[in-house]
Design brief:
It holds the Pfam family ATP_transf. Strands 8-10-11-9-15 form a 5-stranded mixed β-sheet, with helices on one face. The chain has a 3-stranded mixed β-sheet with strand order 2-3-14. By secondary structure, it is an alpha+beta fold. The protein has 7 helices and 15 strands.
């Protein structure tokens, strides 16, 4: 049964789609198994037609700071406020009713998540009851566990610490923040032990969160050849723009694609917090 929050998302999504304020990107789904793990690969050919802009304006664009895509936002995509955040629908979505939790003031994408950020994520996840949810965060400017060939850090969440009767939202946000920073510290320490250097670039990583666990995956690059990979790739969902890209994934192997944009591991680390 849908909650009021889910009903509002569906209502705004349908209206925005009808009015042309939101674009649903059509895709087909292929299921690929790699070393016993099943992955969902979406093929969205319309993404390949995205205009690349005026190449002659490169120098001018480099001198301008990047614009915040959520400021100002379209009122047609607004779901509700939650403290210092606006909950919005994603204007270009591959999956229907994809929401974005955006800060009202600009924040760098390279900054770590705050307790307030994590509480807002958990708030939205708890408001969605009719289906499983996954939240993700792409940090950086690039953009069965032992079988994964890349460095990853996982923390199992304590359901008692997250239950509504255990404490108020401040305690929940502090708990999530402690788990997040424990993983972050573990990741950085592990990279130092491997003598992995990120040079002068800010550390990039993907964070994935469900109702039961956190996972952080440090990144080495944004793309495997021409295929962009974001957090959802490490949740088992890759997006390709053509049959050729799909064939590349099949031939190379999904895990090899993920390993190619992550950091190849020496020893996988699983933390229970």
């Amino acid at each position: 049964m849908q909650t009021h929050f889910e009903g509002r998302i569906a209502e705004i999504y349908n209206r925005a789609l009808q009015r042309g304020e939101l674009s649903f990107i059509e895709s087909e789904v292929a299921h690929i198994e790699d070393k016993g793990i099943e992955f969902e690969i979406r093929i969205a050919p319309s993404l390949a037609k995205k205009p690349i802009g005026n190449l002659g304006a490169k120098d001018e664009l480099q001198q301008k700071p990047k614009a915040d895509p959520f400021l100002p936002y379209s009122q047609e995509l607004f779901v509700q406020e939650h403290g210092i955040y606006n909950i919005l629908l994603n204007k270009f979505c591959v999956v229907p009713r994809h929401i974005v939790i955006a800060t009202k003031d600009f924040e760098k994408q390279t900054d770590p998540l705050t307790p307030e950020d994590l509480e807002s994520i958990w708030y939205c996840m708890m408001q969605i009851k009719s289906q499983p949810t996954v939240a993700f965060f792409n940090c950086g400017e690039i953009f069965d566990i032992p079988k994964l060939p890349y460095v990853h850090h996982i923390a199992l969440l304590d359901p008692q610490r997250l239950s509504g009767h255990h404490g108020h939202h401040g305690e929940v946000s502090q708990y999530l923040n402690d788990v997040f920073h424990s993983l972050l510290d573990s990741m950085i320490e592990g990279l130092h032990k491997q003598s992995f250097s990120i040079g002068r670039n800010p550390l990039s990583y993907n964070l994935i969160m469900t109702h039961t666990w956190f996972m952080i995956v440090p990144r080495s690059r944004e793309k495997y050849e021409q295929i962009s990979v974001n957090s959802l790739g490490f949740a088992g969902m890759l997006l390709t723009r053509s049959e050729e890209e799909l064939e590349l994934v099949k031939n190379v192997g999904v895990l090899n694609v993920l390993e190619g944009v992550a950091i190849s591991k020496q020893n996988a680390i699983m933390d229970e917090v």
